[in-house]
Amino acid sequence: MPPNVRKCYCGRHNCIETFLSGPAFSLSFFEQNNIDLTAHQIVERLNANDKSAHAAIETYEKQLARALAGVINIIDPDIIVLGGGMSNIARLYETVPNLWQEWCFSDRVDTLLKPPQHGDSSGVRGAAWLWPID
Ligand SMILES: [Zn+2]
């Protein structure tokens, strides 16, 4: 496999999940710094003003903004709620909406980006509601 190709669990390559998940963030940090840390450890370094962690999160924010701009361009949602462990990074809710305009077709984007109200496993909680309770 050539460099910069990420194999996805779904069998394809370079799915957005392979860039935006916690393990993907960890892999990006490893590729940039040759240091193997979890996403959580990288965020701890970020909070301690580590330069390499700062560079990694800036790259991540651009990737996330570009991915969400694709969603905004297609369905123009009122709100996007992040999920998963990466949704615990508070700065994303300020930085990403300031970046996504670059890839949005519309001159004005009103979409809000919000953290999950019930924590980073809200997607699983929501899925549980899909089954009726008798
Ligand atoms: Zn995939």
What does this entry look like structurally?
This protein has 6 helices and 2 strands. The chain has 134 residues and is mostly helical. It has a single domain (17-128), classed as Nucleotidyltransferase, domain 5 (2-Layer Sandwich), CATH 3.30.420.40. A two-stranded parallel sheet has the order 1-2. It starts with 16 loop residues before the first helix and ends in a 6-residue tail after the last helix. The mean pLDDT is 92.
Topology at a glance:
Layout: H1 17-20, H2 22-33, H3 39-47, H4 51-75, E1 79-81, H5 92-99, E2 112-114, H6 122-128
The protein binds zinc ion.
What's the average pLDDT? 92
Structural domain tally: 1
CATH fold field value: Nucleotidyltransferase, domain 5
Given this structure, which CATH class is correct? Alpha Beta
What order do the strands of the largest sheet run in, or round the barrel if closed?
Answer: 1-2
Query: What is the terminal separation in angstroms?
Result: 50 Å
Spans of at least 5 consecutive residues whose pLDDT stays below 50 are none
Output the structural class. mainly alpha
Question: What about the largest sheet?
Answer: 2 strands, parallel
CATH architecture label name: 2-Layer Sandwich
